[in-house]
Amino acid sequence: MLENRPSGPAGRRARWLLILSFLLLMALTTVTVSAQGTAAEPDPLQPTNETGIPDETLRLEPTILSETRSGDATNITIEIPVGADTFTASNRPATNFSTDSFLRVGFNSQVNGAQRSFVFFPMTNIPRNAVVQNATLRMFVAGFAPNNDAPMGILARFLTTSWDPNILTWNNFNPQWGAEIGVGQIPASSGWREADITGPVREWVWQLRPNNGFMLQGDESPGVGRERIFFAINANNGLHPRVVVTYQIDNVAPTVTMTPLGQWSPGTFQVRWSGQDNNGGAGIRFYDVQSRLNGGSWQNWQSQTTATSANFTGVNAGFYEFRVRATDWAGNVSAWPSNPQASTRVDTIAPNSIVNPLPQYTFSDSFTVSWSGLDPQPGSGIARYNVQVQANGGAWQPFVTDSTATSAVFSGAVIGTTYGFRVRALDFVLNVEGWSPLAEAQTFISGGDPGAEIVPFSSRVTQQPRFIVSWRGIPVPGTRIDSFDVQFRFNNGAWTPWLSSSPDPNRQFIANQGDGVYEFRVRARDNAGRISPWAAGPGNGIAVDTVAPFIVPSMWLPVVPNTN
Fold first, then answer.
1. Longest CA–CA separation in the chain, Å
2. For every one of its 564 residues, what pLDDT tens digit does the chain have, with 9 covering 90 and above?
């Protein structure tokens, strides 16, 4: 087959234009990119071999878009151009695309296969103490496939190692993937697309994560061949990827406080602190807390903690002091306070208490119970008491609960019952003593009137006008008989007082009314002032026969006394 070629001047001009176009294309395809490296942040564009030489003419510098000042605060918006970009393709696994004008993601069904893009933005122009308020990624869509395609989700992942765009290929899989940043939906249309990357930029600026850039990954399903194409830095058309960051300079350290502690604390107690960064500041990153014992040297207790409270355990009688400082995300550190911000003394020993002794017998259905206590010194002091009662050794029941009183009246006592009491005390830091297993004091409820009776005469008849009359008292438990009243009557006559308040249990009686029958009755008075009813008892009478003929008993019959 013959090929038609233009001839003459027009043909020559066409051939020269074709040659110039080809030379320009060759020049564009050999362009490489670089970014300035620093000791603090590895430069992913720095070549690691001789396969690529960065083109210094493509290096772009950040641009300050705006800068405003308000008081001590400076707000800056900066545009950071991409420092390095490239992509890899699965069907061209050994090909390096660092000089390509485009960044590709998705699946190219014609040549490349699956495609993944890698981008890096240097953050060295943003100060370490900057507070990043927002950061926006901007990339220009230069092409897409297929037409009328639905928006394609593009996943961004952190890169965990540094990388060199001049040698990166699908095969060498360098760098390694990291955590996901997020997914953005990119429609099938050309123009600028934006995504919020405030979080990643903050981490890079504050050096919480090494800045190795990120990878973009789209729909790599081979069926339809979905693809999104962005301009790269090598397009050299001003439509390269960029990040617009607004930040504020934070040179002010946070302020911190501690919640005051009580004068006394138990062996383990909670210490609380808080902090506040300046308005518009970076925010508090962590706290450091120190303690000291009895005025000694400060010791680190909590280091780089994000908590605002912790439990502290001390020794008895130890005097503990605390102070706190805070570090914000911008690296500003508050100074240690010269004076302690909270202090307390530890009390770990429970108080002692006891119920005061009770009488063995109680003669009332209500009586006073008292108790006392002592907190070992130095101690926080007794805050309240709890008292329990038991009846006849049974189950313990509450009597006094959470009271500061040291006595109380017990009411409703039942005669014949023994009541026991025990007490325990709590101090002001809630150290509590154990209950005694036994009653610390107890009393028996004694009740009723005493009893009395005439002791029966040994003989029912006497020929003597003088004879001994005896009586006895019957006390209730816990009492004693103090005195007696005795009466007599002659031949069933009226009762006549004989003795009053006599302490004696017997006395000689003189039968002044002559021969006849004398009867006696008695009542007892105990030490509680209670008096028994009049009582005679069997054999309380005796016949006096002093004149002959004398009475000679032939048989004894019971004498039924008339006590009326």
1. 201
2. 323 333 444 444 444 444 434 333 333 333 323 232 332 222 333 333 333 334 445 678 999 999 988 766 788 999 999 999 999 999 999 999 999 999 999 999 999 999 999 999 999 999 988 889 999 999 999 999 999 999 999 999 999 999 999 999 999 876 688 899 999 999 999 999 999 999 999 999 989 999 999 999 999 999 889 999 999 999 999 999 999 999 988 888 999 999 999 999 999 999 999 999 888 777 899 999 999 999 999 999 999 999 999 999 999 999 999 999 999 988 899 999 999 999 999 999 999 999 999 999 998 899 999 999 999 988 999 999 999 999 999 999 999 999 999 999 999 999 999 999 999 999 999 999 999 999 999 999 988 889 999 999 999 999 999 999 999 999 998 889 999 999 999 999 999 999 999 999 999 999 999 999 999 999 999 988 899 999 987 889 999 999 877 665 554 445 444 545
CB 117 within 8 A of CB 168: no
Q: Quote the distance between the C-alpha of residue 291 and its chain's center.
A: 20
Query: Residue 162 and residue 176: Cα distance in Å, rounded?
Result: 9
pTM, whole model, 2 decimals? 0.61
Separation between Cα atoms, residue 384 and residue 9, nearest integer Å: 117
229 token code pair = 């194409």
Pair 502, 481: CB distance under 8 Å: no
Beta carbons of 273 and 254 less than 8 angstroms apart: no
Q: Are 260 and 278 in contact (CB under 8 A)?
A: no
Which pairs with CB-CB distance under 8 Å and at least 24 residues apart come from 58-64? 58/31, 58/32, 58/33, 58/34, 58/233, 58/234, 58/236, 59/33, 59/34, 59/35, 60/233, 60/240, 62/125
Phi, psi of 65 (to 5 degrees): -85, -35
Q: How far is CA 6 from CA 1, 13, 14, 427, in A?
A: 16, 10, 8, 112
Token output for 316: 């008895």
Phi then psi for residue 243, to 5 deg, are -125, 130
At 112, list the tokens.
């490349």
Burial of 179 from C-beta contacts in 10 A (0-12 / 13-18 / 19+) = exposed
3-state helix, strand, coil in the chain (%, to 5): 5, 45, 50
From the centroid of its chain, how far is CA 48?
54
| Long-range Cβ pairs for the range 553-557 (8 Å, 24+) | 553/460, 553/461, 556/460
Cα 371 from chain centroid? Answer: 36
DSSP 240-265: --EEEEEEEE-----EEEEPPPPSEE
